[in-house]
Amino acid sequence: MTMRSQPTARQVRLGSELRKLRQAAGKPAKEVAGLLGSSSTHMSQIEAGSSAISEERLRRLAAHCACTDEELIDALVAMATEHARGWWDEYRGVLPQVNLDVAEAEHHATFLREVVITYVPGLLQTPDYARAVFQYMRPELPQSELAPRVEHRMRRRAVIDGDNPTPYETILHEFALRIRVADRRTSLVQLRQILDQIEQGHVTVRVIPTDQDGFGGADASMMYMGGPLPQLDTGLLDAPTGTMFTNAEAELKRLRTLFRKVEAASLDPTASQDFIHRLTKEL
Q1: Which of 65, 7, 56, 70 has the alpha carbon at shortest distance from 31?
Q2: CA triplet 146, 121, 196: central angle to 5 degrees?
Q3: CA–CA distance from 147 to each of 131, 139, 140, 216 (Å)?
Q4: Claim: this prediction has a pTM higher than 0.70
Q5: What does pLDDT average to in each consecutive run of 10 residues of the chain (283 residues)?
Q6: Which residues are 242's β-sheet partners?
Q7: Helix, strand, coil proportions of the chain in percent (round to 5)?
Q8: CA-to-CA distance for 172 and 273, rounded, in angstroms?
């Protein structure tokens, strides 16, 4: 079977879940590989996400590892047998792999929760706002890279704009709403875009005012993506080395706790909507 030179984050996640099944059952890789009629090397490649696994082999592996969670097995089979290309694949070789991985993860999420303090979240950005943000990247992006990044970011909005929108809840700081990444018009259009998304009813926005007491999370930044089952949830973090996916339960628990803390410091959705309305009048 053809080796993947650069597996996607979703393919890597499938491999890690299969490794968890094997390890939870106390089965060595060599034993499971023999059962599947494969080699230890190939088994390592499957668990690394660099080689595919068929539905028949996956179900045989789960049975051998005494996994009786049919919902989990079915969810893993769905991940393993996806063959349709997503719109993000059009940007392969044009944008960094992580950009494609984020779009794919959002596409498959059952819900999205995000905390952003210094910028308007990407899923809510207008083209002019996104362009202004990308123009500050270092090293500076040439136009040939800037345009596809903006286009890709706008297409990501399909998850909250489509016929079957994914429930999306975001918390952002007043600072992010007030700072002018470009000019007054860009800021005004951006605020109206957020209000429009709220009024459509499938986006929840909470705002943390600058005069809010008890908010110590100025460095908070995260996205939490719901999976088909809780054990398949995914976290997305901005790290010094770049964007990082995480699925460790301890880390996911930390992200859920962080979201609750930040939520407690924010205005409720109705008050937040009124707050944004007032900002548009100030502009």
Answers
A1: 65
A2: 105
A3: 8, 16, 13, 36
A4: yes
A5: 81 97 96 93 95 96 96 98 92 94 97 96 98 89 91 97 93 97 97 97 96 91 97 89 90 96 97 98 93
A6: 239
A7: 55, 10, 35
A8: 12
